[in-house]
Design a protein that fits this description.
- The structure holds 2 protein chains of 2 kinds.
- By secondary structure, chain A is mostly beta strands.
- In chain A, 0% of the residues lie in helices and 49% in strands.
- Chain A is built from no helices and 11 strands.
- In chain A, strands 2, 4, 5, 6, 9, 10 and 11 form a 7-stranded mixed beta sheet that branches.
- Chain B is mostly beta strands.
- Chain B has no helices and 9 strands.
- A 5-stranded mixed beta sheet of chain B has the order 1-9-8-3-4, with no helix packed on it.
- The chains are: A mainly beta, B mainly beta.
- Chains A and B meet through strand 4, strand 5, strand 9 and strand 10 of A and strand 4 of B.
């Protein structure tokens, strides 16, 4: 069964450094998402991406964040200058072109980002 | 904020049915009820969704009340591996350009005990 994959599984970085989190969505999916979950807290929406542009973003997704689909398979989240409070699990999700009931989002296993 | 209310925790005996309730009294006519679960710190896993009719798949059944203000997720024979946080989410199903990002609440922590 196809699945969303994410790399790395764990990223440790120093405060102020740039990090890029990578995701490979399910191949025929067209909508892509990033969510994050700070330890012990709720899963929070960050951004959605469709047709090579951001469709929607939350207040969390400020100028320090950016997303990109650099090729036909990868979807990346970049944090330009990491802060301690960026430490969290970051989940990528994808869904197919909507139609009927086929708009379920499928999540990857997550990347644990630790900012020191 | 999440538009749903769920009990923070529930216990269930292994092999018994787990019935997880959810209140969504302000649900709109075009909003579906979705259920996801999160095992430990893994990515949320889709379980089932429905609009107004009851639904069943290989994982669970979803019972939606006639007024659509509440629903129940049923795991017919819970196993230890079903221990997880279960999230009930209402959202508009996407058509065309609609994005429908998921808004997670705190969910129900289901503990299946031997």
């Amino acid at each position: 069964e196809p699945e969303v994959t994410q790399t790395p599984s764990h990223q440790v970085t120093q405060m102020g450094q740039e990090v890029i989190l990578r995701c490979v969505p399910i191949s025929n999916h067209l909508y892509f998402y990033w969510y994050r979950q700070i330890l012990g807290q709720k899963v929070e929406f960050l951004v959605s991406f469709y047709n090579n542009e951001i469709s929607e973003k939350s207040e969390i997704f400020d100028d320090q964040f950016s997303v990109e689909r650099p090729d036909g398979s990868n979807f990346t989240l970049k944090i330009r200058s990491t802060k301690l409070e960026d430490s969290a699990m970051y989940f990528c999700a994808s869904r197919p072109l909507a139609g009927g009931f086929t708009d379920t989002q499928y999540f990857g296993p997550g990347t644990r980002l630790t900012v020191l | 904020d999440a538009k749903t209310t769920q009990p923070p925790s529930m216990d269930c005996a292994e092999g018994r049915a787990a019935n997880l309730p959810c209140n969504h009294s302000t649900i709109s006519g075009n909003e579906y009820v979705y259920w996801y679960r999160q095992i430990h710190s893994q990515g949320p896993q889709y379980i089932i969704h429905g609009l107004k009719n009851n639904e069943t798949n290989e994982m669970a059944s979803l019972i939606i009340t006639e007024d659509r203000k509440s629903s129940t997720l049923i795991l017919p024979h819970a196993t230890l591996r079903d221990t997880a946080v279960y999230y009930c989410i209402v959202r508009v199903a996407g058509y065309g350009g609609s994005q429908g990002n998921l808004i997670f609440g705190k969910g129900t922590k289901l503990s299946v005990k031997p």
